[in-house]
Input
Amino acid sequence: KPIETVMRESNRDILIPADLVATVNQDNNLQHVFMVLTKVKYAKIPVLDNDNHFKGLVSLPMITELMMQDTGITSRPLEAIKVKQIMQKDVPTIYERDNLEAILRYLVDENFLVFVDSDTHFKGIITRRELFKEINYLAHN
Amino acid sequence: KPIETVMRESNRDILIPADLVATVNQDNNLQHVFMVLTKVKYAKIPVLDNDNHFKGLVSLPMITELMMQDTGITSRPLEAIKVKQIMQKDVPTIYERDNLEAILRYLVDENFLVFVDSDTHFKGIITRRELFKEINYLAHN
Ligand SMILES: Nc1ncnc2c1ncn2[C@@H]1O[C@@H]2COP(=O)(O)O[C@H]3[C@@H](O)[C@H](n4cnc5c(N)ncnc54)O[C@@H]3COP(=O)(O)O[C@H]2[C@H]1O
Ligand SMILES: Nc1ncnc2c1ncn2[C@@H]1O[C@@H]2COP(=O)(O)O[C@H]3[C@@H](O)[C@H](n4cnc5c(N)ncnc54)O[C@@H]3COP(=O)(O)O[C@H]2[C@H]1O
Output
């Protein structure tokens, strides 16, 4: 397993810690989440509860879908709906970051992985970019 | 260079051909592009002209940014603006797909690469997912 052994040798951390990740609270209304996603420009971001537990993921298309009406585009429904009502909930989470082979396999179909502790408190994300940087770095050394 | 030699041995094509890629025409108005991006759910897609030349990339935040006003969210400006006025134009394109090391390096900072011919006609995209599948496949063989 050349890739895994080669990654083991590096001790760079590939986790982006929670305080650097843009998130929203599950009780925020969609007008607020629409503004956050427009400002940060990330395609999808984590949704947390008041105790920093990971609850789901939200993206702009999940919100803009509700704005499409026969008469055109309207933002009226957004103020009354909370993100917890429309967020994606079936999200794989990981508890440890040393099984690089599993991380690589997950990142084939996901843009990033959500890292939590044993109480599902949100700890950060592992992104495809960080894994590519790792593979790139190690391929040259 | 272990990764490159190992990738050379595989002859799977990592290109997603143009006819499978969701695109918009640079003269489409933003109301139309808003609807396409909401339906296909891709974070960013290519913008072409009438002769299938590659012209730029568009994402929902580029559009929703124009909908944010002091009074709230409005879709009124969208019908009168064409996507060519707001699209991202400084996009790296590639002409050949055998230099895997360059592709890997590009995909550290880009979600996908745009593949064109010598006349900048759009031919398809090379995505991070396809490259991960390749690396994953070859790491096990
Ligand atoms: N402000 C910025 N500056 C420089 N490059 C930028 C950037 N925003 C996006 N990119 C580049 O575009 C890729 C795709 O970002 P996207 O927002 O679609 O998808 C992102 C986003 O949904 C999420 N993500 C990454 N960093 C985040 C953060 N700090 N907070 C929240 N979500 C984040 O993870 C996905 C994969 O991110 P990854 O870093 O692998 O890959 C990123 C990165 O290479
Ligand atoms: N309908 C779907 N079915 C299954 N999985 C899906 C999916 N939509 C997205 N994904 C997964 O989410 C990743 C990120 O997609 P995103 O739309 O942010 O970012 C996408 C999108 O901006 C663009 N892209 C990919 N395929 C496209 C297509 N057929 N047409 C237009 N753009 C495409 O390339 C970026 C990277 O795509 P990649 O495949 O590496 O990575 C994809 C893929 O692993």
